[in-house]
Fold this sequence. Notes:
Blueprint: H1 8-15, H2 19-24, E1 28-31, H3 33-43, E2 48-52, E3 64-69, H4 84-102, E4 109-111, H5 116-121, H6 129-136, E5 143-148, E6 151-155, H7 162-168, H8 171-187, E7 195-198, H9 214-228, E8 233-237, H10 239-248, E9 253-256, H11 259-268, E10 275-279, E11 285-288, H12 305-317
Parallel strand pairs: 1-3, 2-3, 4-11, 6-9, 7-8, 7-9
Antiparallel strand pairs: 5-6, 5-10, 10-11
Amino acid sequence: xxxxxxxxxxxILKSLAHPEIHEICRPVVIGDTKILERAKSxxxxxxxxxxxxxxxxxxxQNHLLNCLDLDLVPKDLPIGKVSAEAGHAAFLxxxxxxxxxxxxxxxxxxxxxxxKEALQKGGHLYPGHTxxxxxxxxxxxxxxxxxxxxxxxxxxxxHVGIIDAINMINPDRVYDVIKLAxxxxxxxxxxxxxxxxxxxxxxxGENGLFGYGEEEExxxxxxxxxxxxxxxxxxPLPADTLFFRAVRGDFxxxxxxxxxxxxxxxxxLGLDAGVNITVxxxxxxxxxxxxxxxxxxxxxxxxxxxxxxxxRQAVDFAPxxx
Length: 322
């Protein structure tokens, strides 16, 4: 359910009101029933919420919303405000989801947004969902992938400052992310993914004109290693034109070096268009690509399109039992 004080509860209600979602999966919300009940009043939802304590109790009828009720926050939790209680609860919702996914009681996780400040106030010193998931699943090699119509982006670094990001980029990490991109797209049905790698500096350094040789030191060896492994990787390429080329269809995915380099182009396509997918985990996890939107929480106007698409992609990536 994400942060109970944000838009998560209302976009969940809106998404699970779509009949087509129930045609492709059997959704269960891990959160607080009382918060979903409250959200019904400002969303105008007619869904009946079924509070359950075990997955076996779920009843998958279209008019029902199953909630595995952890009962962690008060009914009168302030809406649209940073709260240590909500941050702690968001962590525990996710922890429960991971436990269920690791034990194969559920096939995939789709997360509503959490608030990083609330999370840390709640005692969990993580920069976001991705790092929590990696820690809980003991995953070392992972990355954030954003998926939007005609554009997929995977990141070498994410939630760190720009100076720290550049220091963290190295050939091994570049290679690992290229390899994760290749493996992920192959699993999704692309036989020979075309992968483009961004430079760090303007014009990818322009042969040493910009920067201090970061491309030569940090990026090129990783790209060459990927090519030696028969991965179709190109780069480093100038980021200012690369994303246009990717949207045009020249590449299947772009490897971005840092957070804003990759997030900016995806979000220009529309905040409701992007889906966040954590790759490299032993479980499937997708998410909305927007925040808790405290400024509009409780008004019933939050758009559920990103969550609905994230659910669809969770279903697409989930293991199929034939």
